[in-house]
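Re: How this chain folds, sequence and tokenised backbone to follow

Filed under: protein folding, tokenised backbone structure, sequence and structure records.

Contents: The amino acid chain and a row of whole-number tokens, matched residue for residue.

Body of memo: The sequence and its backbone structure tokens, given next.
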Amino acid sequence: MKPIEYLARQMALEGIQVIGDHWIAPARPGGEDVPLLLLARTSDDVLRLFVNCELPIVLRDRLAVPDRQGFSADWALEVLRKAGIPATIGRYRTYVCPESFEPGDCEQVACYNPQDPKVVAFGFHGLADEVFAIECGGQIVSACMSSRQASQAAEAWVFTHPAYRLRGLAQQVVRAWAQAMRQAGRTPFYSHHLDNTNSARLARRLGLIEVFDEIGIERET
């Protein structure tokens, strides 16, 4: 798949419907909140700008600037604030897991039911049907599961107890999760805020494939 196709698949996973060339809306009533504005640059340098179609039409037309290369998120934020819409900026990077990883030891990883008491104690219950985790001393210390999951794609959520970090455990659970998603016919995505250096380091160690960066402007709650 091309990076722009991965972008479309990830947006669908997030419940974002694309209307025409510039507009976005919730894919279904009562779904996740859609950003007020989304600017994405793919790894092959395709730039796409989307504006929430629920904004007033005058504001939408002003924000859908033709010069995307010169687009300023700070300018867009100020435009929204002057219109009485307080908003915040988030900057994110999204990767796709490779078709197969380099040989790695995943023998410690087990697949758990999300209602397993150990999973509940770790705080990884209620989002997905499977949790891929490593135990130590009878307790889960590292786990990966889908924060979002649909028929075509899933996004990883991984956490390791602070006392067990820097041992390669996160790499193992992400590998196990990604392999299971691939086997189920889903594209396994991994995303992080650009300021999250730990997540960026994990992505490098896993050899994940960068597909796009996003600037998202969301309504301030």
